[in-house]
Amino acid sequence: MALAATAKTERLEARVTREQKSDFERAAEIRGLTLTDFVVIATHQAATETIREAEVLSLRDKAREVFVKALLNPPTPTPAMREAVRRYRARVSR
After folding, report:
1. pLDDT tens, 5-22?
2. pLDDT digits over 20-60, tens only?
3. What are phi and psi of 7, to 5 degrees?
4. How many CB atoms lie within 10 A of CB 37?
5. Every domain of the chain and the residues it spans
6. Cβ pair 31, 38 in contact under 8 A
7. How many other C-beta atoms are found inside a 10 Å radius of the C-beta of residue 5?
8. Angle at 40 (CA atoms; ends 39, 41), nearest 5 degrees
9. Which residues touch 87 (CB under 8 Å, ≥6 apart)?
């Protein structure tokens, strides 16, 4: 499982314990990868999953139903909501 042939110009360094390095080396060997390739792949997978979890909204059952109903039938804006929008637009349009 080789990494794509994209130019690699950035460097990343980390201090780890002896036990962590031993685990990384063993896992890399099991996967048939170099230590560097294993660490890069595993770190990238963890980063991608973390980003996905932060950006994707997952709702189940009742929560999903309430959310969809609110999108399809939004409440009438209150005077306070209208004022908040006016302040936001004034600030953003500067």
Report:
1. 688 899 999 999 999 999
2. 999 999 999 999 999 999 999 999 999 999 999 999 988 99
3. -60, 130
4. 15
5. 18-55, 61-92
6. yes
7. 6
8. 95
9. none
